[in-house]
Every structure is written in C-alpha cells, then in structure tokens.
Amino acid sequence: EVQLVQSGAEVKKPGESLRISCKGSGYSFTSYWISWVRQMPGKGLEWMGRIDPSDSYTNYSPSFQGHVTISADKSISTAYLQWSSLKASDTAMYYCARGYYDILTGYYYNWFDPWGQGTLVTVSS
Amino acid sequence: DIQMTQSPSSLSASVGDRVTITCRASQGISNYLAWYQQKPGKVPKLLIYAASTLQSGVPSRFSGSGSGTDFTLTISSLQPEDVATYYCQKYNSAPFTFGPGTKVDIK
Questions:
Q1: What is the CATH number of the domain that holds B43?
Q2: Residues in domain Ig-like (chain B) (predicted)?
Q3: Which of A13, A44, A46, A77 has the fewest other C-beta atoms within 10 Å?
Q4: Which residue of B has its CA nearest to A110?
Q5: pLDDT tens, residue by residue, A70-114
C-alpha cells in the first residue's frame, strides 16, 4: 500500500525553529515528487512547494519562498518541511502529498495522491 | 501567476439533486486540472485528474469536464456522504494553485 506518514502535532513558541517530516512507503520514493500543502484554520488549500527526492531539486510558491525550506533524505524515504523562525501566522495543518509519474511516458504530473494524514502546527506564546 | 476561481462558494441541495461546481483559470491550462474532495476534519481526496478522468475507486456519480479556462465538476445524484468542500487545482506549471473551494451541504 502506498502511504505517506507524517510526524505528530507540534506546539511551538514564536521565533522557534521546527522541522516536520513525511515518510513514504510502498513505492519507489525517488520516482515521485513530494509537495507540501498548507491549510490554515477554516481556510482553503495552499500549495507551498515540491521536491524531487532523487536529487533534492525544489520549487516553491512565491508566497512561501524564503519562509520555509523543503528537503528530503532519500536514504530513509523521508521529506521535510522546516522553519527557522516560526510566527503565529504559521499555525496551520500541513499536508504532504505525492505527485504522479507516468512510467510509460516518463512524464510527471502534479496532481496529488496519496496525501499524508497531516501535521498540526500551533505557534503561540 | 494563474489564478483559480470557483463558483459558487457554497451550495445547499437535496439528496438526489444534480450539483454542478464551476472552476475558472485566469489563463488557459489545457486539461491540467484536478478536483479534490475534503470532508470535515479529513484529508483531501483526489476525485478527478486531467479534467475528466475519474480516480480509481471514486463513485461514477462524480464527473468532470472542460478545457482551457473553464471546468466543471458534476455530482449526478447528491448523496449524504458527499457533504464536503470541493477544490480544483491547476497543475500545468508551478505554482500548482488550488481554487478557494466550494462547500456542499444537504438541504
């Protein structure tokens, strides 16, 4: 079964750093891009950025560029999302999600399935 | 960047009704459009990709159509378990923007 399992909920103070994780299983981790998606309380879905786990190449949404860092460790099939200095406005649910790779054509498509279960990050003083 | 809009923002319909949600891109995106369903408190679920291809396991009452800038998601006969927020997403190029969502309730 293809699965993405995320790390648990976090409660942090403003200014603290944080790294959350997303572990893939049931498939070749390096063959599929991983994206991160933010959902603030009561709000919609926002694409943050993606990583190619095979070479750690990343793309970021302009809205998140410079605010977060996406990385991956292919040796343990895990992608990460990290902050160096959290703000209260970073309070949200964060999802990782896998893109699609067409083995027959070699094309990558960025619709997302499956998704991780989500990591709730709460930033409060 | 290409902006995605959805209409309506919410709707209430009776069980068995046909429900249509519209998604519009500010520029043409061919058929690089996906639809997701998010039930309250749950993880988003892929329903449709390539504008009209039903993801495996998704009930056939869901269908998608459109190309270019205008797309629709149709639920042919609304069921109680379809109460959710529905999002479109473009994926022709980064950033892979989501629409603002359409909340569907039962009347």
A1: 2.60.40.10
A2: 2-89
A3: A13
A4: B91
A5: 999 999 999 999 999 999 999 999 999 999 988 899 899 999 999
Nearest CA in chain A to B1: A62
Enclosing domain of residue B47: 4-106
Judging contacts by C-beta atoms under 8 Å, the chain A residues touching residue B91 are: 109-111
Task: Quick: pLDDT tens for B41-82.
Answer: 999 999 999 999 999 999 999 999 999 999 999 999 999 999
Residues A83, B54: Cα–Cα separation, whole Å: 36
How many other C-beta atoms can be found within 10 angstroms of the C-beta atom of residue A37? 25
Strand B10-13 versus strand B102-106 pairing type: parallel
Judged by a CB distance cut-off of 8 A, whether residue A50 touches chain B is yes
Q: How many domains, chain B?
A: 1
A24 touches chain B (CB under 8 A): no
Report pLDDT digits (tens) over B11-50.
999 999 999 999 999 999 999 999 999 999 999 999 999 9
